[in-house]
């Protein structure tokens, strides 16, 4: 596991992430946090995410084996394709979220640094007789390019064209470029040899990518309503609460047309018969408080806890915002409090949960209704 400060922190103006947080080893910003967010949204920015934990899986059965122990349908994943995936416990609670890419007979996985060792340990314990060999890949690191002008960097990247969503193409000198559907519509990850991290940083900034810290990445991720494992989730979170339902075509991490994985029963029961007890929403926070609330703080209504606060960040247009898991029954116009801040739910962030469920329809038919 790599926990040393990133070499990119030596870039002039780099300010490390807050001590004790998941992002302490990389830059939080480079002196202009709101300008960096705008660059990532409107131009092209490069973000050092080299604190991600990377592992690889080789072996002829790597995909069919992974298919049986995780929530996503990956048994037939084509070469150069990617997906998001979850590991659930027996009760369907989310243990790990990760992104995977199959390329040239190897599955590459990246996840949060503090979850990586436990995920690797789980994978190793589940191999049994399968031809699959999970290994830590500390010699690889992640950079992200965000913004519509990423298309101007093909020459610097050494690729003929940018890949489609969840597709990946090899990069010269090793590693690959993968397109992601978030945190912006134009988001790309470079999974590259760690020894070439500063080389790639220099090459892409010289070509026009503007340095941006994790503050920018997080602000855009929050507005995209994309949760981060361990920060926007807790030990009770199930996939439906965190918007992880769906196959790769739906940009989800839980395929509903597959079975035989731990936690499947909970996923099926909620999808067919029930509703998730909470849902992930965007909160607008009162910025007049002297301090921002912290992740894990209770969100209250009338003094009663009704949710859990996740990522809190200042956005260049929206001001202080946060993700939160809020009880589904709480009306959207409820006055909320999160730590020292008054809070309100963004109505556009509330998921529609009024579609008829297949299981309920079947029960009604059996009962003649």
From TrEMBL:
Keywords: Transit peptide. Residues 342-369 are annotated as: Disordered. SUPFAM superfamilies: Folate-binding domain. GO terms for biological process: iron-sulfur cluster assembly. InterPro entries: GCVT_N, TrmE/GcvT-like, YgfZ/GCV_T_CS, YgfZ/GcvT. Coiled coil: none annotated. Residues 36-242 form the GCVT N-terminal domain. This is GCVT N-terminal domain-containing protein. It comes from Nocardia amikacinitolerans. The lineage of its organism: Bacteria, Bacillati, Actinomycetota, Actinomycetes, Mycobacteriales.
């Amino acid at each position: 596991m790599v926990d040393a400060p990133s070499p990119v922190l030596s870039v002039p103006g780099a300010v490390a992430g807050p001590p004790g947080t998941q992002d302490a080893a990389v830059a939080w910003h480079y002196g202009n946090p709101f300008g960096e967010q705008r660059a990532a949204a409107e131009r092209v920015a490069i973000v050092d995410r080299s604190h991600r934990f990377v592992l690889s899986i080789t072996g002829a059965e790597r995909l069919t084996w992974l298919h049986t122990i995780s929530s996503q349908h990956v048994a037939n994943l084509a070469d150069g394709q990617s997906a998001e995936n979850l590991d659930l416990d027996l009760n369907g609670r989310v243990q790990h979220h990760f992104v995977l890419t199959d390329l040239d007979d190897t599955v590459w996985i990246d996840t949060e640094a503090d979850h990586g060792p436990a995920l690797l340990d789980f994978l190793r314990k589940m191999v049994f007789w399968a031809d699959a060999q999970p290994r830590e890949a500390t010699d690889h690191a992640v950079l992200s390019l965000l913004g519509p002008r990423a298309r101007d960097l093909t020459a610097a990247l050494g690729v003929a064209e940018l890949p489609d969503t969840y597709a990946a193409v090899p990069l010269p000198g090793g590693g690959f470029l993968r397109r992601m559907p978030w945190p912006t519509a134009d988001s790309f990850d470079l999974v590259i040899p760690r020894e070439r991290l500063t080389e790639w940083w220099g090459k892409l900034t010289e070509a026009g990518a503007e340095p941006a810290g994790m503050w920018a990445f997080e602000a855009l991720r929050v507005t995209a309503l994309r949760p981060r494992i361990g920060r926007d989730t807790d030990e009770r979170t199930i996939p439906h609460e965190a918007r992880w339902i769906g196959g790769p075509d739906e940009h989800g991490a839980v395929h509903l047309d597959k079975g035989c994985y731990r936690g499947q029963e909970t996923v099926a029961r909620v999808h067919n018969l029930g509703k998730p007890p909470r849902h992930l929403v965007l909160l607008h926070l009162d910025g007049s408080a002297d301090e921002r609330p912290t992740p894990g703080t209770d969100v209250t209504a009338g003094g009663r806890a009704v949710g859990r606060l996740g990522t809190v960040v200042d956005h260049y247009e929206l001001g202080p915002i946060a993700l939160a898991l809020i009880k589904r029954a709480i009306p959207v116009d409820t006055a909320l409090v999160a730590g020292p801040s008054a809070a309100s739910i963004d109505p556009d962030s509330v998921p529609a949960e009024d579609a008829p469920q297949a299981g309920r329809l079947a029960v009604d038919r059996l009962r003649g209704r």
